[in-house]
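Exercise 7.
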Amino acid sequence: MKEKRLWSGYQRRMRRFHRVNRVLAVLVFLSTLFTKQHVLVDVAGGVILAQICFMLGQKTEIWHIYERFGSKIEKKINRYIEGAKR
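Solution. The predicted structure, written as tokens, is:
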């Protein structure tokens, strides 16, 4: 029973997160158009590209490449910070 309540709480948080995420995406979309940084075609192309990348990331293991790359950068930053503290 407790697991069911935890799961439903998680689902509510995720729905709220998705709603907030959609609102923020629309606000970014509108701000770039109203400040004349982009035109509608640019925004549509960006949305399509983001969706394609998201689907590829879910269906393939390509994301492991970026994860390894990110961890290497993180290690270098940590070494640099440790060296600067001394």
